[in-house]
């Protein structure tokens, strides 16, 4: 459903992505792993149109995304969850969710798409906090709210940047459980992570980046067997 082919992206004159290629199939959870500063977040931003690739192709259901504005890519069914969460801290949980509603594909996540009622049914913690302001939520709750607010636009795929960063281990489990629920609902997930031990529990396939390039592609068993790759690129 999503194919990234040989993209090159820059910040000014700095060449960040050097021919990155990856793909997602419908219903998968794919994880992009690697150390800090290797281009993982830039890859998501390039897919979303926040960073404009200077070369290469990004196709989503046979529609070319390179050259489109981020709002146009979002309307096609791509959701983006940034690393810094960007919740509306002065608004309640319920108001944040309302802000996420837009004219997306109504059938993108099952019959009827995503509604407030469906969100509260699947994620009861948000229902419990529905009248709390964003500033009063824990880090894990803020991360959950950011992901679910993105779902309110009925995306077919979501790009999630470092969802477990800075969270305590017990909260990491809650966030991963939430993403697994999202995936089971029919939404395809591309997740950027540094936490190998967290990612290996939930993702179907993995890409590892180093210095702006993909250096490994494989499933869970292949990654667990690739001890040298993990040692050289993941510090595990």
Notes on the protein architecture:
The protein is α/β, with parallel strands linked by helices and 236 residues long. The chain has a domain at 2-83 and 153-233: P-loop containing nucleotide triphosphate hydrolases (Rossmann fold). The chain contains 10 helices and 10 strands. It has helices at residues 40-48, 70-76, 93-99, 116-122, 124-128, 139-151, 169-184, 196-199, 220-225, 227-233, and strands spanning 2-11, 14-24, 29-33, 55-60, 63-64, 78-81, 157-161, 188-193, 205-210, 213-219. Strands 6-7-8-3-9-10 form a 6-stranded mixed sheet, with helices on both faces. A 4-stranded antiparallel sheet has the order 2-1-4-5, covered by helices on one side. A hairpin with a 2-residue loop joins strand 1 and strand 2. Helix 3 (93-99) runs parallel beside helix 6 and helix 6 runs parallel beside helix 7. The chain is globular and about 45 Å long. The relative contact order is 0.19.
Keywords:
single chain; 236 residues; alpha/beta; Rossmann fold; four-stranded antiparallel sheet; globular
Give a quick precis of the structure.
This protein has helices at 40-48, 70-76, 93-99, 116-122, 124-128, 139-151, 169-184, 196-199, 220-225, 227-233, and strands at 2-11, 14-24, 29-33, 55-60, 63-64, 78-81, 157-161, 188-193, 205-210, 213-219. With 236 residues, it is of the alpha/beta class.
Strand content: 25-35%
Lateral arrangement of strands in the main beta sheet: 6-7-8-3-9-10
Low-confidence stretches: 104-111
Structural class: alpha/beta
Q: What is the fold-level CATH name, i.e. the topology of one domain?
A: Rossmann fold
By DSSP, the count of extended strands is: 10
Largest sheet properties: 6 strands, mixed
Helix-strand pattern, N to C? EEEHEEHEHHHHEHEHEEHH
Rounded to an integer in angstroms, the radius of gyration calculated over CA atoms is 17 Å
Q: For the residues shown, what is the average pLDDT?
A: 90
Shape: globular
Q: Label the CATH architecture of one domain.
A: 3-Layer(aba) Sandwich
Distance between the termini: 31 Å
